[in-house]
Amino acid sequence: MIPVTTFKGRQVALFGLGGSGLATARALVAGGAAVIAWDDNPDSVAKAASEGIETADLRGIDWSRLAAFVLSPGVPLTHPKPHWTVDLAKAAGVEVIGDVELFVRERRAHAPDCPFIAITGTNGKSTTTALIAHILRSSGRDTQLGGNIGTAILTLDPPKAERYFVVECSSYQIDLAPTLNPSAGILLNLTPDHLDRHGTMQHYADVKERLVAGSGIAVIGVDDSFCALIADRVERAGTKVVRISQRQVLADGLYAEGSRIIRAETGATSEIADLAGIQTLRGSHNAQNAAAAIAACLAVGVSAEEIRAGLASFPGLKHRMQPVGKRGEVVFVNDSKATNADAAAPALSSYERIYWIAGGLPKAGGITTLTGFFPRIAKAYLIGEAAAEFAATLGQAVPYEISGTLERAVAHAAADAAGDPKGACAVMLSPACASFDQYKNFEVRGDAFVSHVKGLDGITMLIDTESGGK
Prior knowledge:
The chain has 470 residues and is of the alpha/beta class. The chain has helices at residues 19-30, 42-50, 84-92, 99-110, 125-138, 171-175, 195-198, 201-213, 225-236, 284-299, 304-312, 341-349, 387-394, 406-418, 442-454; strands spanning 11-15, 34-38, 68-71, 96-97, 116-120, 142-147, 163-168, 184-187, 217-221, 240-245, 253-257, 260-265, 268-274, 322-327, 330-334, 354-359, 377-383, 400-404, 425-429, 460-461. The strands form three sheets. Strands 6-7-5-8-9-10-11-12-13 form a nine-stranded mixed sheet, with helices on both faces. Helix 13 (387-394) links the parallel strand 17 (377-383) and strand 18. Helix 14 packs across helix 15. The two termini are 23 Å apart.
């Protein structure tokens, strides 16, 4: 835990007592703050109270006595309208911040020079975050991984010299972190997302820009117009910018040339890494992720040799294009995190011949946007509520069967792939659907896929299933 000492002896209100909110309340109390916490869920309030955290309906407290108001990132700050607690805070002139801001202040107070890499973007941020942490850890560095990737930032070990922090930041977290100042900040890309919470694409982009604007070194993907303009603005403001591209040759920065990552610097170019043969970094989207990770690691003092070793041993992000087993020339890929068609596209683009397991609780639009990948699909195995809808879309273009369950789909796909005349192929779970018709969440669905693969005869597992597939 990181005790939040910067509010010691002062009163702080907090709203939102889910996982990260409760962790934040604990950290504030541990640091000596007087916390008043609340949530719309009575069970969450009761849990906090059982731990000795003071709780009270924030409508009835004296806001003039507060040093700050801490809001959980899942609660609306601006759109579609501010939460009622935000209105109360603003009326009283109380600053509204989040857990990432509390971390930033603790780092600044106790170890301002400890390396801190923050990552954001619409797509690819979790893979990039996990890859950076893996490179740092595999090089022997004390590394803390958290934020939006799933570990509340204030549950990490406290900042100190030579301790590296790798933090994934959502737009919601950035919006609540006005003094965010990582050693290296990454902005991968921007496409329309979460506009219900940001109102417009421009506001969404403005929020994301804050992360790199406050960075010591800004690493920015420039393959979309929003990010290209942000890179120019941040550079004009005096921040060192490293541009990243998977589509174009850059005069200065890092770019992909096939599987090779090229660094261009002062008119000279050199290959810094080659992703060929790294199963967990297949696809052009992963070239961007890898280039950004390389740039950030170089910025905090990791050598090119250490980076190449880390890339080669990267186990992949669990449930995201994760090779989990192999039998002969058939690789089994867990892409359970692909809960809609757009999310499934990168995996489908990364293999030439696929036995595709798809289906679950369908999203609007189904799989109609994936028709360009149909020639890669040897056969589809359809499960869950979406099976009939997906079958209609596949029509005569792709052979398919209605497998119904994931267990049956794995068994049938594995048997068919074993007899594939072309040899090399993938059995891939990339559902393009939510999991909730058959599973609690995509993690449980992915774990079930891994379990079914592990049960096949003659399989060589590529992950450590005893430690949760890491």
